[in-house]
Amino acid sequence: MPINGLFDRTVGVLNKVLDLRHRNQQVISSNLANIDTPGYTPARLRFEEDLQQALESPNQAASPLHPNHFAIGGGSLEQVSGRIEHLVTNSGLGDQNGVNLDQEMVAQAENQLYYEAATTMLNKKLGLLKYIVQSDR
Questions:
Q1: What is the pTM of this model?
Q2: From CA 124, how far away is CA 110, in angstroms rounded?
Q3: What crossing angle do the helices spanning 101-134 and 9-33 adopt, rounded to 10°?
Q4: Which of 6, 51, 55, 59 has the most CB atoms lying inside 10 A of its own CB?
Q5: Dihedral angle over CA of 111, 49, 74, 15, nearest 10
Q6: What is the pLDDT of residues 47-64, one digit of tens each?
């Protein structure tokens, strides 16, 4: 039995989400590490819109390189990498550092929840595949 198609698009999407969430954690950690750096401008990784576009338009433009890739303006899901946006703050106080500890902690907790949810979904998917492989059928 060929194993082409054993992993559907869900596994690819979850893999990409985990990669992007990991990168997002690095950006948040950088903000927290620079909380006392004078003049530091905090950053955010924006990728949700690009990922949504990749999921909503699987058959537009050129055909994907691989059947499990999503087309996105002639590209694929693999091309979704997010973009770093620097947050402009008008605090004008003290050392001009724009990092807000409360906002960063909320962003970190939210990112962690989404990462754990994607990990759980991937584990369930792989568990289902394991069940199928181990069955007698």
A1: 0.78
A2: 21
A3: 150
A4: 51
A5: 20
A6: 999 999 988 875 544 444
